[in-house]
Fold:
Amino acid sequence: MILVRLNGGLGNQMFQYAAGRSLSIKQSTRLLLDTRTLTNHKSKRDNSVIRFNISATIASNDEMKYWPTWSRYILRKADSMGFKSHWHFEKEFTYSNINIGRHHSSLIEGYFQSEKYFSDIRGILINEFTPKHGIDETTAASIKKIKDCESVMIHVRRGDYATDIHAKKTHGICTKSYYDNALTHLKKRLNNIKLFIFSDDPEWAKFNIFEDINAEYITGNLTHPEIDMHLMSACKHHIIANSTFSWWGAWLADHDDKQVIYPTPWFDRKTIDTRDLIPQGWHPVSK
Structure:
């Protein structure tokens, strides 16, 4: 079996799950979720990925007994010194092969933020990353409205990027000029676009970025983020934030001629190498 250690919000968990899912298919084995980081009393995240129709279950205490937390620190140190174990640690942000034994249980830990880990199972992930409990009539009506026009999803991420000093220093926030330039780029290529703005702070977005722009606002669903993700992926084109959440909204979209605009640099912290993060064909605009 393969265990994947979940960490972070929904977008991060989706990367971790997708990497583990691809690996489990290649090795014809079960995939289990290690949720101990999320259930830690210091964590502000919950297990969001289980809101999708995923093909994995949460590992039981009995299944986790061979992976005690105290051994993680020893194995991580050993791994940094070149000693191999069945606990695989991602060493850097760029893509690297997950080299684990085929006949043993293995636990993988990292962010795995590149489609290179799972592009081979894109069809499977599109089917699995759909809301487990279905959608209501209001959401169905929104999806119809989105699909019946030249829809453009715009994501404005605030939250901890704006309020947490460490997050703000690491990620940075997309500026008004980014969204203006991204829209100019799309308008040169598309006709009669309709804008759907997704944000955890729609009032701020409206009065600080899109005050003179006609758009429909979709307020972030804090209790069911998988619904927002599903609505994002229904859009034909995408202007994403430097956020894994809207990265997935764009990646899951199955429109043949989709245009995706992304902010660069992705991180304000210059030491992070993002060369494998962005899929081929997505267009950069300075943030």
Remarks:
- The longest strand covers residues 150-156.
- The mean pLDDT is 91.
